[in-house]
Write a structure and sequence with these properties.
The protein contains 5 helices and no strands. The longest helix is centred in the middle third of the chain and has 34 residues. The chain has one domain. The model has no long low-confidence stretch (mean pLDDT 84). By secondary structure, it is mainly alpha-helical.
């Protein structure tokens, strides 16, 4: 009876001749889409744009750029509408649902295609990008935009009538 091969201990460093994961360094497309629930659909779309560029898919990157532009316009339009329109329950409800609706439209319009493509090309074995820098950058942009929009709201409230 033959002995099974001896396995290295669990905490052993990887061997020098172990091949690195194949493919470009990408953000996990599914995780990027999920982060859009907390941060913004724009966040998800920008990361997918950068992934398409890393994959060398120029046509998909161009499509992703169009989505980024459209999402930014829709989000800014909604924010400005909240500033200039008188407060109402309907507008408040609409503004709360716009982000989720845009994320769902983006995901089924183009985001899901990247998840499918990456899974078909690499499965789960591709090098991953970290999340700290993009998440902190998104949070900084959200805070900065909140200050700017808050200032615009104050200015709008005190405009001459």
């Amino acid at each position: 009876m033959t002995q099974p091969p001896e396995l290295p201990p669990i905490d052993a460093p990887p061997s020098a001749d172990a091949a690195p994961p194949a493919g470009p360094v990408l953000w996990n497309p599914n995780a990027a889409a999920a982060w859009g629930l907390l941060l913004s659909p724009v966040f998800s779309a920008v990361l997918h744009l950068m992934n398409w560029q890393a994959l060398g898919e120029a046509e998909k990157a161009h499509e992703a750029k169009q989505w980024v532009i459209g999402l930014v316009a829709a989000m800014l339009g909604t924010m400005l509408l909240l500033i200039v329109w008188p407060e109402s329950r309907a507008l408040d409800t609409l503004s709360r649902s716009v982000g989720v609706a845009l994320l769902v439209a983006w995901y089924y319009g183009t985001g899901k295609a990247q998840s499918t493509r990456v899974a078909a090309l690499y499965g789960r074995g591709y090098p991953r990008r970290g999340w700290i820098v993009p998440v902190l950058a998104a949070l900084a942009l959200i805070v900065g935009l909140s200050f700017v929009l808050g200032g615009l709201d104050e200015l709008w409230q005190y405009r001459p009538r």
